[in-house]
Amino acid sequence: MKRVAIIGAAGYVGLELARQLRGADFDISAVTRENGKFLLRESGFDIIAPKDIRSLGTVDIVVNLAYPTSGPPQHYPDKNKEILGQIKTIMGPASRLIHASTQAVFGYGLDRPIVTRPVAMVRDYAYIEAKIELENLLIKNFPSQSIQIVRLGNVWGPGSGAWTAPLVHKVLFGEPVAIKGVDGYCNATDVANAASYLTFLINSDELHGISFYHLAELSAHRWSAWTERIEKALGQDSVQLPDFPLNPYGLGQEVRQALSPVMPGPLYRNLVWSRISGSRLRTLTRGIGDQRFESIKRRAAKTLPSGYSLGEAEKTFLSIISCQTQFHTNVLDKWTPPVNFEQSWSRVEDWMSAAGYSIFEGKKCSSR
């Protein structure tokens, strides 16, 4: 019986993989932190804390779903080394490694060449740098072993904390979900398909060397294909921003953007609705008089760009959702995704209803 260890088993993809592997003819150990144990309590797997991973000895297949998610971003390289250390502990000379990576190694907006080979380190957001670095660490440390690196598209599905739930919430609460006139490729993979392909690789004993796969079987659909159905299910329209500059790509632009809040106009806008500083600012306004203050504020704000003030997370979201490059699937021919677009939407729709989002008293609102 094959011994399989899943590192990061309590994440979104990990839980679906556990569901699909339940009852399989494998000896499976799930490596997860303390807060993930209750999520896997019905999996039937042996649950191991990272600090106790040495007790597993050598396994036949390591599936790594872990990546840095917490702590200061400057320490992500140290987190990567911790993950590498866990993998090294249980990898033997004949062990295989299956590593889940992401399309973001080519940039959130897929602005770098998409290739099925290693990606060189670049300066980018902390998450992207960490993902690229971990791929390269694994290749460097296991050059002669079987490694399958699966770069997943945007992982979509019922309750997805990265995409489905945030998108539903944004429509529901009137937050922007797109830029007007810009409808990007969704570049999505359903979580059931992602776990299915990982399961397929686990069962593929004949794989050797280092292989790269790209999985975004729903990528040809635009984001509007999802948002329009969510709108109909919720009974309300989504918010789209007018033309808005997304995340800058130049160092100078980033520095100017970071410094802008210390200018009088942005500073006023940032403080006026706050709790303590806003109260003092309102007192100051009353002291110097409304007319004089309005004149000062107009002069201070005149040089500012018009439009919305978005946080970095919102800009990243809009950058991804506006992507005009399709992330094409590149997987082994013998595998077929079990869930198509309509089935994927049906699963999400059922989840929305069960979670209480539907305004139709639990009845399915079909867009098909």
Question: What features would you describe in this structure?
Answer:
It contains 12 helices and 11 strands. The protein has helices at residues 12-21, 76-90, 126-141, 164-172, 191-202, 223-234, 251-259, 264-271, 277-288, 290-301, 312-321, 341-354; strands at 2-7, 26-31, 46-48, 59-64, 91-102, 146-152, 154-156, 176-179, 188-190, 210-215, 239-241. The longest helix is centred in the middle third of the chain and has 16 residues, at 126-141. Among the domains are: 2-154 and 188-217 and 326-338, NAD(P)-binding Rossmann-like Domain (Rossmann fold), CATH 3.40.50; 264-303, no CATH class. It is α/β, with parallel strands linked by helices and 368 residues long. The two termini are 44 Å apart. The radius of gyration is 24 Å and the shape is globular. The strands form 3 sheets. A 7-stranded parallel beta sheet has the order 3-2-1-4-5-6-10, sandwiched between helices. Strands 7-9 form a two-stranded parallel ribbon. The protein has a two-stranded parallel ribbon with strand order 8-11. The model is unreliable at 299-307 and 360-368 (pLDDT under 50). Helix content is 38%, strand content 16%.
Largest sheet: 7 strands, parallel
The CATH H-level homologous superfamily of the domain at 2-154 and 188-217 and 326-338: NAD(P)-binding Rossmann-like Domain
- Order of strands across the main sheet: 3-2-1-4-5-6-10
Which structural class should the secondary elements be placed in?
alpha/beta
Q: What does the average pLDDT come to?
A: 85
CATH domain topology of the domain at 2-154 and 188-217 and 326-338 = Rossmann fold
CATH secondary-structure class of the domain at 2-154 and 188-217 and 326-338: Alpha Beta
Order of helices and strands: EHEEEHEHEEHEEHEHEHHHHHH
Distance, first to last CA: 44 Å
The count of DSSP E runs of length 2 or more, i.e. the number of strands, is: 11
CATH architecture of the domain at 2-154 and 188-217 and 326-338: 3-Layer(aba) Sandwich
Instruction: State Rg.
Output: 24 Å
The percent range for helix content is: 25-40%
Q: Choose one word for the global shape.
A: globular
Low-confidence stretches: 299-307, 360-368
